[in-house]
Amino acid sequence: MFFAQEAVQLEHPAHGPGFTANEIQELLSLLQSPSPTENSGSRGSNQAVYSIDERKRRRMVSNRESARRSRWRKKKHLEDLTQQLNRLKIQNRELQNRLGSIINQSHVLWRENGRLMSESVALEARLSDLRLVLAAMNAMQQAQ
């Protein structure tokens, strides 16, 4: 047909998102297969068979490429979700640390507030006692 029967050497091997070696070999074998003979029927029927085969081959190649793109999108989506998960785990850990720190500060402030309230009550009582003593002293001075 179009290709000689010798082995085809690719300058750049197909890696990554392209076709696999088996897929390339299968496509080459389709291209190297002999074309339908014109002796078996009219030229129009051979052309119709060839165009059906060609359409099948193109559809197969298109479907494989579409599946490859779909796998790539799925892989990319999974990678994006994994990165988002890692970011959210880090953010969650930071928020938990901040919350723990704030809770500790809150406990310290509650204890300090309790101590200050007790001190205030004690000082109010002392002030009240001092006022009573002062009033008694004033009363004694006025009585003299």
From TrEMBL:
<dbReference type="Pfam" id="PF00170">
    <property type="entry name" value="bZIP_1"/>
</dbReference>
<dbReference type="InterPro" id="IPR004827">
    <property type="entry name" value="bZIP"/>
</dbReference>
<feature type="domain" description="BZIP">
    <location>
        <begin position="53"/>
        <end position="102"/>
    </location>
</feature>
<dbReference type="GO" id="GO:0003700">
    <property type="term" value="F:DNA-binding transcription factor activity"/>
</dbReference>
<dbReference type="GO" id="GO:0046982">
    <property type="term" value="F:protein heterodimerization activity"/>
</dbReference>
<dbReference type="GO" id="GO:0045893">
    <property type="term" value="P:positive regulation of DNA-templated transcription"/>
</dbReference>
<keyword id="KW-0238">DNA-binding</keyword>
<keyword id="KW-0539">Nucleus</keyword>
<feature type="compositionally biased region" description="Polar residues">
    <location>
        <begin position="37"/>
        <end position="49"/>
    </location>
</feature>
<protein>
    <submittedName>
        <fullName>Basic leucine zipper 43</fullName>
    </submittedName>
</protein>
<dbReference type="GO" id="GO:0000976">
    <property type="term" value="F:transcription cis-regulatory region binding"/>
</dbReference>
<dbReference type="InterPro" id="IPR046347">
    <property type="entry name" value="bZIP_sf"/>
</dbReference>
<keyword id="KW-0175">Coiled coil</keyword>
<keyword id="KW-0805">Transcription regulation</keyword>
<feature type="coiled-coil region">
    <location>
        <begin position="78"/>
        <end position="105"/>
    </location>
</feature>
<dbReference type="InterPro" id="IPR045314">
    <property type="entry name" value="bZIP_plant_GBF1"/>
</dbReference>
<dbReference type="GO" id="GO:0005634">
    <property type="term" value="C:nucleus"/>
</dbReference>
<keyword id="KW-0804">Transcription</keyword>
<feature type="region of interest" description="Disordered">
    <location>
        <begin position="33"/>
        <end position="71"/>
    </location>
</feature>
